[in-house]
Specification:
Blueprint: H1 2-24, H2 27-30, E1 53-55, E2 65-75, E3 80-88, E4 94-102, E5 107-114, E6 120-122, E7 129-130, H3 139-148, H4 158-166
Antiparallel strand pairs: 1-2, 2-3, 3-4, 4-5, 5-6, 5-7
Length: 175
């Protein structure tokens, strides 16, 4: 009977030690927990310069021309690719936006729209929207799939993004 009592005391002591260790928390384990995402504060770039505009390929029937200002490109520490997009219509209209794309979540957002005098109008709603690959106006899907987030993985750096854009009409990864 004495040995059963000793075993129970040892077991109780072991359980107390384990519970104290578990309650103390292990800081090393916290390093592996996902951190809450926080977006960086951004500064809006200067207006686009014609010589920096690189066209992107959407499809053979796209009527609008879509261009990215390669000098505005950023691949930031918060996991967002930021860029200035210029859309030219056949009728002569020009639309300029400063946008961001999150490869991790397949989302995009507009930070600001360009005015004709070169200033910016900040977007009233700062929400992230899903990127959909639809036939009409699929420029966000094209930027995501073929240039900035091939395979859902963010480009390594700005130069890699510029290189992908220079290969207009060719995805970064070919089959």
């Amino acid at each position: 009977m004495l040995t059963v009592r000793r075993c129970l005391l040892l077991l109780c002591g072991f359980l107390v030690c384990v519970s104290v260790w578990a309650a103390s928390g292990d800081d090393e384990d916290e390093a592996y927990l996902p951190k809450a995402w926080k977006e960086l504060n951004i500064e809006l770039p200067p207006p686009p310069v014609e010589g920096n505009l690189q066209p992107i390929y959407l499809n053979a029937v796209a009527r609008n021309q879509f261009l990215v200002d390669t000098e505005s490109l950023r691949v930031d520490a918060d996991g967002v690719v930021r860029y200035m997009l210029v859309v030219l219509t056949p009728g002569g209209a020009r639309n300029v936006t400063y946008e961001g794309m999150r490869c991790e979540t397949r989302e995009w957002r507009i930070y600001a729209s360009g005015r004709s005098d070169g200033s910016w109008s900040k977007a009233p709603r700062a929400e992230w929207l899903p990127i959909r690959d639809e036939y009409v106006n699929r420029y966000h899907a094209a930027l995501f799939l073929d240039y900035f987030c091939v395979g859902g993985i963010i480009v390594d750096n700005v130069e890699a993004a510029r290189k992908a854009l220079r290969r207009t009409g060719q995805p970064l990864v070919t089959p």
